[in-house]
Amino acid sequence: MPVGSATFDDAPRRFRADHPEDKFSGASGVLFEQAMAQTRMAICLCDPHAEDTPIVFANRAFRALTGYDEEEIIGNNCRFLQGPDTDPKQVEKIRHALATEDVLVVELLNYRKDGSSFWNALHLGPVYDNDGNLMYFFGSQWDVSDVRAARAEEHHAKMMARELSHRMKNMFAVISGIVNITGRMRGIEKESAEINGRIQALGRAYETTLDEASSGSIEIGQAIRAILSPYGADEDRLIFLGNGARVPFQTVSVVGLVLHELAANATKFGAWSDDNGRVEVDWKRGEVDDSAALIIEWQEVGGPQVSEPENDEGTGTAIVNRMLRLAQGQIDREWAKDGLRVTISVPLGSMA
């Protein structure tokens, strides 16, 4: 690369020329020059034998990160990057590592020449010569401000999810209590128990997915397993076949109520009303009418022979049909001799 190139960094060559005694010669010297000039990692070397351990080399990436020119860096201790909000405890760790010639990785708040701050992941370590004598301290700097922000955002989201989970549990408990009291007062305990079953199914579905809700999408398998877990004491009678499909968070309510009604029906009349019956549940992302959709397949096997009801749809069927209609979804039921087969599709909207 020509010396006149705008991207050329001749600091490594000049450093070698100024420190011939440090054995940066031959192939190793060329490699040092190329590595220090071309790497995008900010790197500096400090002299432990000079007063105040000044910087004696800083590559182009270091200058770009801090905003300082070379003449403003060389000869100064690295503390000039510290500022009012730099944590003294982290600075003390650096002092201790220098005193003990230890390797250290630490994150601390540093400041650029223009006064702006950045989180610096500093990797500090000693450099020895062939005889084991300390030559320099090596420091590499990495701006991890975005990483720190992402961590903080994730932590905040988890805290909010936990708080929301607590409040939702309380809300479902209050609703359940109201339903129970109303049922006893009006002599409709059976009906109130059915309603509470639906409330609890929704509660389980939401509780398992709240940690992911802030991202806008969830792994629906978690909700499906939570909804059906009360029915799956015997693993041979409830088989999950689905994958890690991700869907919009709002899909949970539809899936929760539909699967609860199917499970309740299987317990009363279908596969789970027989000691030998089992249910297989599969789910995946697919397409319906050229649009992205969540597809759930419910198959009952080994239970009593079933046939399509002749009566008008019951409460559970009405709820399922209404929920899917509102979600613009579809449900297909096949009353096979060996058990009910159901295919449900729920559009995923903009999450294609």
UniProtKB/TrEMBL annotation:
PROSITE patterns documented for this protein: PAC (PS50113), PAS (PS50112)
PAC domain location: 104-156
Domain PAS: 55-101
Alphabetized InterPro entries for the sequence: HATPase_C_sf, PAC, PAS, PAS-assoc_C, PAS-like_dom_sf, Sig_transdc_His_kinase_HWE
Region (Disordered): 1-21
Entry's Gene Ontology molecular function annotations: ATP binding; photoreceptor activity; protein histidine kinase activity
Transmembrane segments: none
Keywords recorded for this protein, A-Z: ATP-binding, Chromophore, Flavoprotein, FMN, Kinase, Nucleotide-binding, Phosphoprotein, Photoreceptor protein, Receptor, Sensory transduction, Transferase
Record's catalysed reaction(s): ATP + protein L-histidine = ADP + protein N-phospho-L-histidine
CDD domains reported for this sequence: PAS
Biased composition (Basic and acidic residues): 10-21
EC number: 2.7.13.3
Entries under Pfam families matching the protein: HWE_HK, PAS_9
NCBIfam families: PRK13559.1, sensory_box
Name listed for the protein in its UniProt record: histidine kinase
